Known about the structure:
The structure holds 2 protein chains of 2 kinds. Chain A has 9 helices and 7 strands, in the order E-E-H-H-E-E-E-H-H-H-H-E-E-H-H-H. In chain A, 44% of the residues lie in helices and 17% in strands. Chain A has 2 domains: 2-149, Alpha-Beta Complex (Sufe protein. Chain: A), CATH 3.90.1010; 157-215, BFD-like [2Fe-2S]-binding domain (Arc Repressor Mutant, subunit A, Orthogonal Bundle), CATH 1.10.10. Chain A is globular and about 50 Å long. In chain A, strand 6 and strand 7 form a beta hairpin. Chain A has a 3-stranded antiparallel sheet with strand order 3-4-5, with helices on both faces. Chain A has a two-stranded antiparallel ribbon with strand order 1-2. Chain B has 2 domains: 5-13 and 258-391, Aspartate Aminotransferase, domain 1 (Alpha-Beta Complex); 17-256, Type I PLP-dependent aspartate aminotransferase-like (Major domain) (Aspartate Aminotransferase, domain 2), CATH 3.40.640.10. Chain B is 41% helix and 14% strand. Chain B contains 15 helices and 13 strands. In chain B, helix 3 runs parallel beside helix 9 and helix 10 (258-276) packs parallel to helix 14 (360-379). The chains are: A alpha+beta, B alpha/beta. Chain A binds chain B through residues 1-2, 6-8, 22-23, 25, 28-32, 34-35, 47, 51-58, 74-82, 121-122, 125, 175, and chain B through 302-307, 310, 313-314, 323-325, 327-328, 330, 332, 342-344, 347, 376, 378-385.
Amino acid sequence: MYDVQSKDGSEWFYTEKVKDHFFNPQNLIKTQEEAIKYSEEADGVGIEGSPACGDMMKMWIKVENNKIKECKWQTFGCASAIASTSMFSVIITENGGMDIEKALEIKPQDISSRLDGLPTRKFHCSVLADKALRAAINDYYEKTGQINKIKKDKIKIIDKILKITDQDIEEAVLDGVRDFEGLQKRTKIGIQDKSCIQEAKQLLRFYVEKYFAEEK
Amino acid sequence: MDKEIYMDSSATTYIDPEVFEVMKPYFNYEFGNAGSMHSKGLKAAHALNLSRDKISKILNCNFDEIIFTGSGTESINLAIKGFVFKNRKKGNHIITTKIEHHAVLDTCEYLEKQGFDVTYVEVEKNGIVDPEKIKNAIREDTILISVMYVNNEIGTIQLIKEISKITKEKNIIFHTDACQAGNSETLNIEELGVDMLSLNGSKIYGPKGVGILYKKSTIRLEPLIHGGGQEFGLRSGTENIPAIIGFTKALEIAQRDRNKNNNYLLDLRDYLIENLLKIDDTILNGDIDKRIPNNINITFLNIEGEAILLKLDNEGICASSGSACTSKSLDPSHVILALGRPYEAAHGSIRFSLTKNTTKEGIDHLINVMPKIVEELRGISPVTLKMEDIENV
Lengths: 216, 393
């Protein structure tokens, strides 16, 4: 019923599991009152994205003995974002909760495979969940005085003339760029600052492997 | 909910049974090629001529001013590219607006790459283009102005007659994309004062894969498709007679029943708008009066449009959204953004385009389920913008 065809003709659709998690999301905060209550109770809270980009995620966690006992979330996002965050919250809290370190290693393709796949074009919708978790865990570390454990994604400028960052490259990959030619067409990276081409190519490979490597 | 409530007629319409009936014989019995020198071919040629004649009467123009094409998009491409390629010596500048359909916008972007200059005129907050702004954009080298008759997303009706007064005075060719206007607006060329006009079948309860371009006989175009010289040499390829027959019948019905349908739909539209706006933090996109009688476009703040569409679909309701997630480009609606609304508002915009057979019962079902869907999705959203936040942007 929800099968959809994209404008470029490539067919894509939502699997039964995606539909199930969209219509019955797990661990979801359902009202603003609940959100306020959880903000007081949670051990860590994180926010990622912005509504202007069409995608925003807020996540609350409770931690016990270094394991994630509860993971609650809210989203301004499409069906894929709702379904993948629902699945993500299940993965990190099932069987008594996942170790923090392990939870941070979960990749979008792990979520996608548990949902029996997401349309390629919708893949980027599942990325926000692990970024929000990273923010929530950092918040937890800060509140519990484990400052040395906080890891932040530092923004690094790659193309020094056009001020193109590693995040721009990451975004391009998530939007479907796979080769350097495509990256250059989109960002104009390396056209003026030729010294950055090598590094840009390495980062491109890194992000393509990070998000789109075959699931093992 | 077993019943399907289709409110996406601006995407496409079903084929009217009356239209389908008249098309049928042309698929098998009267299958001839209008270019053939035998009775089978002559019958096809006769059907083609008769269709062209009927359409020219509806549009109040000459027989040889109607060119059949394969779609509204093709008509628009032929009008714009065909004209500027043929008339490049006269000038290099094109004027259009920021809220055109991609058939116009992408064609203009392509022409910019070919060295043409294009001005994209701003639209007012109510979704209407100010003719004065078109006038102010005119330069010495302006050769073509293209402004849509009715906007496909927000249904606003542009001031075509006012703009054509300006273009006549300045002696500039004026094309209008009328693809969304055929069901409710006049298509009388004399009245509108346009030099070219594009229409298609799939929005007027006719078949898909057929469109027409009206082109004033004095205008010369460069063909985009070369071959057997059909359609006065402007659009080669064996004529699609069943589709042309269907298009003609659909246009006849649409223009014949225009006032009746308008009266019926206006009440339903206003009833739906009134009730949907009762939900907190909602905005009507586009002018409340200067819009076609079947278009409702509303932003539900703090929710992403695709999620709304899927929940509506689950209730049997088909609509569409300006959300980035429903577009190929992952950019939200350029039309909602052009109204001066922030990105947040574009992502949560939903278009309901009623069909001529939409019932009060269907509308009531929508009115019943919408508050719950909005409440649910707002409950799970971390964004809690208010109307004031949007209006102050």
